[in-house]
Specification:
The chain is an alpha/beta fold. It contains 9 helices and 6 strands.
Length: 237
């Protein structure tokens, strides 16, 4: 019997790229207000440089590359400070309409929870900005357990199951990233569903079993029907 739906957060319930835009804008604004920019550079120049390098595939040295391009002096301490601003900024996010409609539809049918990787307080601030915390019976941030317990480590799944007082077979896990989301859930006996958002950051091909999801959806609006298919399969295997 399916009673519980557990969601990933980033690129499952909203487009993570919107958070990235918000973070780069916050860092650009900070640097512009701090002063010390070349006379011909402003906040928009900073933001555009961050965005260009990020979109080119530079996901780990974005600030370094952009500041170097703009001929702005920096050192390791400056970069650490900018990363902290990015992760601690209050993001400007809007929950997609299809996500809100889906959560509204499911809230009376299932117990719902979130299991999310990512740095704190960034993940907490995302949920607050999206204004969706009231939908969930429990939210577990794997960062609070230690970085070694990020997915695909199963510990977060196991703890959430205990907190919700449910069996794995009663749960469906909904995520986006086939490299880490579905292996632990599959191994525990949950049904698994991948949501493939058009603007997703992770575009890896689905893994083979045992890491592949049971179903792949092109829109979160398809989730109610997918959950019904899980129920039907359990009733009529």
């Amino acid at each position: 019997m399916i009673t519980t739906v557990i969601f990933d957060l980033d690129d499952t319930l909203y487009d993570e790229i919107d958070y990235c835009r918000s973070g780069f804008r916050a860092v650009a604004r900070f640097l512009a207000q701090a002063g010390g920019l070349p006379a011909n550079r402003d906040e928009d120049d900073l933001y555009n440089a961050f965005w260009k390098h990020f979109c080119s595939g530079n996901r780990t040295q974005t600030f370094n590359a952009a500041l170097k391009e703009l001929q702005i002096d920096f050192n390791d301490e400056v970069i650490v400070s900018l990363v902290s601003i990015y992760r601690r900024h209050e993001p400007v996010l809007k929950l997609p309409d299809d996500t809100r409609k889906t959560l509204d539809l499911l809230t009376d049918r299932y117990s719902m929870a979130v299991l999310t990787d990512g740095y704190l307080p960034a993940q907490e601030l995302k949920l607050k900005a999206l204004q969706i915390m009231h939908y969930f019976k429990h939210i577990l941030y794997t960062e609070s357990l230690g970085r070694s317990y990020w997915k695909p480590n199963p510990k977060g799944f196991e703890m959430l199951i205990r907190k919700l007082a449910v069996k794995p077979s009663d749960c469906v896990y909904v995520g986006d990233n086939p490299t880490k989301d579905f292996l632990p859930a599959n191994q525990l006996g949950m049904a698994t569903i991948q949501v493939v958002r058009p603007n997703r950051l992770h575009t890896e091909a689905p893994e083979e079993k045992p890491a592949a999801p049971d179903q792949i959806l092109g829109s979160i609006s398809q989730l109610p029907a997918a959950l019904q298919r899980v129920k039907d399969k359990r009733l009529f295997p």
